[in-house]
Write the structure tokens for this entry.
Amino acid sequence: MFDERFILHRYKSTSFAGIACALMVAAVWAWDFYRNGEFRLELFVIIILTALIKVGFMTWYRLRD
């Protein structure tokens, strides 16, 4: 059986990893837009979906807690 600290550390590390990946995608999208002047919709959609999912889960947990 796991204790609460393990679950909380896993939750925080997973949240941090998701945010870090979203920031990396945003950096690639911004670099590509700056360098080539090309608006890559698929990268932009990933950034927006990541933000919506994060805010959605924050709202869900806030209302359920």
User: Anything to note?
Assistant: The CA atoms of residues 32 and 38 lie 7 Å apart. Helices lie at 4-36, 41-64. DSSP finds two helices and no strands in the chain. The chain has a mean pLDDT of 84.
